[in-house]
């Protein structure tokens, strides 16, 4: 048929299409003002309907390889009870270059099997910390071609191991170190972007690129880092991994980063916040004002529940980010519900300098003094 379509045929086609959409649940027809109110109420009740961390069981690693769980297993009495506050909370396990390229696949599979128990709808949490050179070494030299090839091989093997597992992934904690690499090179961002694309292809993996904390890069620096590091391929970003700033500050800061990303054309991103060690929060500057020459990575733990600006456990891991019992400022609750996918424990205050060996005294201190 050529020329204009008769009005009666157009109407018939539209009616049939609408009926099909209704039957498939794709088209909602509100009943006047009441229907509009119901839709508005539903949106207000769940402003983050795509949250990949919701409606899943959060799994926990219970292997003797885990230093916290191993210590709990061997403890007795009050020590065991305190360690249980950490051991039975879903925590993020870190994986990096200490696992060889040809072993990361099998190591991750064993980890996933332990956390999920073979069940399909269990969330596994992990941090990928694979850049080499990194930390102080990254400020002195660029990677070799062999190191770049090794990174990509490791990432590919890790992605293969994850497959369809439900994963919350913190990608490259302390990424702002990339701002200090020699000659303003973007090698670190380029490799993280490669990882974000590979992991982002996985059906059930939510990738959160670590971009520091509210007391570290500016919003503009964070946006620049994230855009260069594959944010468009990731679910969002992660905050406060190795800092101790307040959850409220991170909500406000992260929401500004989300808005700035939207303006830059990278839309609909969300974030997660580390709450493992910010029960009595403090910033980088506040720490050094109180402890000149101190060790920020191994900041002092609280000695009692009334002490402030010290390290202790914060909000337990959860995707219920706006609950009253978290005692967030009223102005931050709507922002949290809209932009934050979850509070995760990817910091590790029970380890020496957050990355070394397990320290019993630190674990007991943060468990004993937490306000949550």
Describe, in plain words, how this protein is organized in 3D.
There is one protein chain. It contains twelve helices and eight strands. The protein has 372 residues and is an alpha/beta fold. It folds into two domains: 7-40, no CATH class; 56-369, 1, 4-beta cellobiohydrolase (TIM Barrel, Alpha-Beta Barrel). Helix 7 links the parallel strand 4 (166-171) and strand 5 (205-210). It starts with 6 loop residues before the first helix and ends with a helix. Residues 1-29 have low confidence and may be disordered.
CATH structural architecture of the largest domain: Alpha-Beta Barrel
Please write the CATH class name of the largest domain: Alpha Beta
Q: What is the distance, rounded to the nearest whole angstrom, between the alpha carbons of the first and last residues?
A: 70 Å
Helicity range: 25-40%
The string of secondary-structure elements, in order, is HHEHHEHEHEHEHEHEHHEH
Number of helices: 12
Low-confidence regions:
1-29
Relevant CATH superfamily of the largest domain: 1, 4-beta cellobiohydrolase
The biggest sheet, with number of strands, parallel, antiparallel or mixed sense and barrel status, is: 8 strands, parallel
Structural class by sheet pairing and helices: alpha/beta
Rg measurement, Å: 23 Å
Mean pLDDT comes to 91
Which fold name is given in CATH as the topology of the largest domain? TIM Barrel
Beta content comes to 5-15%
């Amino acid at each position: 048929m050529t020329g204009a379509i008769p009005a009666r045929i157009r109407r018939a086609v539209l009616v049939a299409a609408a009926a099909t959409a209704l039957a498939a649940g794709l088209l909602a027809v509100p009943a006047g003002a009441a229907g509009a109110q119901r839709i508005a109420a539903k949106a207000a009740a769940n402003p983050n309907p795509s949250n990949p961390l919701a409606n899943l069981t959060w799994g926990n690693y219970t292997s003797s390889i885990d230093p916290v769980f191993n210590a709990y297993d061997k403890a007795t009495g009050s020590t065991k009870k305190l360690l249980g506050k950490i051991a039975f909370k879903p925590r993020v396990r870190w994986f990096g270059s200490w696992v060889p390229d040809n072993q990361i696949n099998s190591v991750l599979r064993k980890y996933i099997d332990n956390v999920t128990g073979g069940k399909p709808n269990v969330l596994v949490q992990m941090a990928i910390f694979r850049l080499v050179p990194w930390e102080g070494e990254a400020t002195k030299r660029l990677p070799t071609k062999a190191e770049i090839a090794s990174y990509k091989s490791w990432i590919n093997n890790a992605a293969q191991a994850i497959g369809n597992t439900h994963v919350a992934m913190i990608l490259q904690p302390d990424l702002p170190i990339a701002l200090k690499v020699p000659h303003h090179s973007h090698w670190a961002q380029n490799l993280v972007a490669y990882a974000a694309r590979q992991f982002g292809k996985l059906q059930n993996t939510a990738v959160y690129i670590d971009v520091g904390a509210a007391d570290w890069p500016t919003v503009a620096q964070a946006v620049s880092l994230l855009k260069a590091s594959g944010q468009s391929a990731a679910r969002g970003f992660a905050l406060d991994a190795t800092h101790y700033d307040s959850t409220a500050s991170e909500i406000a800061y992260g929401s500004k980063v989300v808005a700035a990303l939207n303006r830059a054309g990278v839309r609909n991103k969300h974030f997660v916040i580390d709450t493992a060690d910010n029960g009595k929060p403090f910033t980088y500057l506040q720490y050094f004002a109180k402890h000149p020459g101190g060790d920020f990575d191994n900041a002092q733990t609280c000695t009692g529940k009334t002490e402030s600006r010290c390290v202790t456990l914060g909000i337990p891991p959860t995707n219920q980010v706006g609950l009253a019992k978290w005692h967030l400022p009223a102005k931050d609750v709507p922002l949290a519900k809209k932009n934050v996918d979850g509070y995760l424990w990817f910091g590790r205050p029970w380890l020496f300098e957050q990355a070394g060996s397990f320290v019993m005294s630190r674990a007991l201190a943060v468990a004993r003094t937490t306000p949550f």
